[in-house]
Amino acid sequence: MSAFLDAALGFPAALFSFALIVVAGYWVLVLLGALGLHVLDTDADTGAGVGHGHGHGGHGEGTGGPLSAAGLAGPPVTVTLSLLIALAWFLSLAGRVLADRLAGDGPAGGWPGAAVLVVAVAGAWGGTRLLVRPLRRVFPDVAPPSRVDFVGRTCVIRTGRVTGDFGQAEVTADDGSTALVQVRTPEAALEAAPAAGSGAEPEAASGAGTGGLGRGATALIFDYDAASEVFLVMPFDETFGAGR
User: How many alpha carbons lie under 13 Å from residue 108 in its C-beta half-sphere?
Assistant: First the structure.
């Protein structure tokens, strides 16, 4: 047991031991339902706008991503990283034990340890690349949920007014869940659109600069500002049946 601990806590296996503990803890939380598989996947929130889509690069790995460049894209990032870390730890541990035996009188260090590290990393990459190929069929290439998905939807204003620097609204997703999001109304949008006849409270709708967007009013989300993390909305008349 002491030999195993020495190898696990020695160079180069120690470089991956802590990461392996984190991986094990993560999967325990996944089994308990506290975390999901896509917790590390990128949310493509940039470039939001009407007519803009988000890339289907495979679970957060858009074109040019590090995992894509390494040929490891496909499964969720957490699955790929777990395989990579586990294989690197196992190979570095086995290589350290083998190097110690070949050294004979004591633990191998210096160049043998560095060689084991290089072989372990290369072997982990090669093994993970082989394993992700069948896993791509298990995890279809579906883009993760994104804030951009709300663009083009209608929302219900939940604050007394909406201005260029204040406002919140409730929006409903495809699965029926609702989210409270930050919304803003650029003056250009308010000037271009008529006031919404959506039953806003008189005192809210009459507020200066709201364009009729008071509490209870229906608005159309027409863009997303990734820098400020707010949605841009404009008055929406339900009688036209637009939006979704």
Answer: 23
User: Is the separation of the CB atoms in 75 and 144 below 8 Å?
Assistant: no
**pTM to 2 decimals?**
0.49
Residue 48 makes CB contacts below 8 A (sequence gap 6+) with 147, 148, 151, 223, 224, 225, 226
Mutual orientation of helices 14-31 and 2-9 as an angle, nearest 10°?
A: 100
Query: How many Cβ atoms sit within 10 Å of the Cβ of residue 121?
Result: 18
Strands of the chain (E only): list them: 154-157, 168-172, 178-184, 218-225, 230-235
Q: 119-170, pLDDT tens digit by residue?
A: 989 998 999 999 888 887 777 655 556 778 889 899 999 999 898 889 999 9
Peptide linkage before 12 cis (omega within 30 of 0): yes
Measured between alpha carbons, how far is residue 142 from residues 54, 58, 134, 173 in Å?
Answer: 11, 6, 16, 17
